[in-house]
Amino acid sequence: MAKSKRFVFTMARLTRLEPPATGRVYYHDEACPGLSLCVMASGTRTWYVYNWHDGRPCQVPIAKFPAVNVEAARKLAKDLLAKQAAGVDIRAARKARREEPTFADLWQRWEAYAKPRKRSWKEDQRQYNAFLKPLAGRRLSSIRRADIQALHDRIARDNGGYAANRALALTRAMFNRADDIGYRGDNPAVGVERCPEVARDRFLQADELKAFFTSLAQELEDWQHFFCIALLTGARRANVQAARWADMDLDRGLWLIPAAKAKAGKPLVVPLSPPAVDILRARYEQFGAQQWVFPSHGRTGHLVEPKTAWKRIIQRAELSDVRPHDLRRSLGSWMAIGGASLPIVGKALGHTQASTTQVYARLSVDPVKAAVTAAGEAMLEAGGMKLLESAPAGNRVNVIDVDVQPVDDDEPTEF
Q1: Taking each helix axis from N to C terminus, what angle separates 365-382 and 206-216, rounded to the nearest 10 degrees?
Q2: Which of 26, 140, 183, 232 could be bridged to 376 by S-S, CB 3.0 to 4.6 A?
Q3: In Å, what is the CA distance from 402 to each residue of 225, 280, 281, 325, 351?
Q4: Does 217 have pLDDT greater than 70?
């Protein structure tokens, strides 16, 4: 052990210091007053700044030795001592740093905020678990824009630009609420370069509609009805899955989706064309005593995920890159092809863009319903379908009027 505990620090001399048998020993640097090295009996060595503040001794750990060398430790000590001379309580600042919220704390606050307010909060939860958890243990002030950019680039490389942009948007929104937990710093997600996105414009063409309906005819009638309602109304899949008879006005040909179930959080009126009404009347004959238009035996009581049936239909029709949401896009595209104005299309699909909100508000449902009907009939005709007339009371409607026998399906149906 060194004879004196005060000397000019060098890496060689500090490395040779023997740890005490018990407790700890402090050594002081004569070249930088206020810098000391604590040597523990365990062999651990820690840099400290030691000085007086407001008449009391102030000793603050700053780094580990030898991870931080002598010169770097002196610079850290001088910086802290300068702040202390300017009136900063460096010990209180260090305590505040230890107590600073982490990204995991920020997520907990965001979750508490999003659950009662966002219908899509489970998607936020999925993105956090899939992409953002590596930041969980980081103090908020330690997260820089470069860190978020690097994370964004990594997500884009491994999962695509769309996923990366959604994770970035969530991170930015979370930091926008960070002051709720006492963080007053900058938002490191602001200014991060997004990946370019190309809007998807896939919809079913005339020849594809014929193949689609031919394949759909081989499914159970429940699936025929489900996908035809999705196509003929352009409603979002989640709304079709959870459609309730209480929201249907079949006499007026309207489906009234309440605000709590609409994506935009506002009540939505979906026009029902005559073919759609025929399908729904047929289902009401069978399921009208139940709450759901598409009931299931699962926990929710209604259909939740039609992906297995959809996969069969698309593969059998030999269609590529077609998703269930493209049925909604198909209705809008065929409305536009038939000459419907963009405001009419937007009203039919429940769009809420700010630039067209005032125009939508002046539209009545009648021209929208007419455009939906015309587009539905055009798609049915393009698919080789006979246009259905209203079914007499008590009769069932088989909406797919093509000469194809249903396939045997041993898989348990979701209905």
Answers
A1: 80
A2: 232
A3: 15, 20, 21, 24, 34
A4: yes
User: pLDDT tens for residues 366-399?
Assistant: 667 888 888 888 888 888 776 444 444 444 455 5
CB 228 within 8 A of CB 355: no
pLDDT given at position 407:
45
338 located within any domain: yes
Encoding tokens for residue 22? 């018990």
Residues 81 and 55 in one domain: yes
Q: The CATH number of the domain where 89 resides is what?
A: 3.30.160.390
Q: Which amino acid is at 184?
A: R
pLDDT in the model for residue 242: 92
Identify whether residues 119 and 238 lie together within a single domain. no
| CA dihedral angle for residue 296, residue 302, residue 305, residue 311, rounded to 10 degrees | 50
Structure letter (DSSP) for residue 320: -
What integer pLDDT is reported at residue 55 of this predicted model? 61
Backbone φ and ψ of 409, nearest 5°: -135, 105
Cα→Cα distances 143→111, 113, 194, 240, Å: 20, 22, 18, 42
CA angle 220, 225, 227 (to 5 degrees): 100
Give me the mean pLDDT over the 222-251 stretch: 93
Range of the domain at 220: 206-382
pLDDT value of position 400? 57
Q: Is 188 exposed, middle or buried (0-12, 13-18, 19+ CB in 10 A)?
A: buried
Report d(CA 133, CA 338) in Å as an integer. 48
Residue pLDDT, tens place only, 96-125: 566 688 999 999 999 999 988 887 788 999
Would you say 386 and 377 are in contact if contact means Cβ atoms under 8 Å apart?
no
For the chain, helix (H) and strand (E) counts, in that order, are 16, 8
Q: How far apart are CA 172 and CA 124, in angstroms?
A: 12
As a whole number of angstroms, the distance between CA 297 and CA 129 comes to 30
- What DSSP designation does 355 have? G
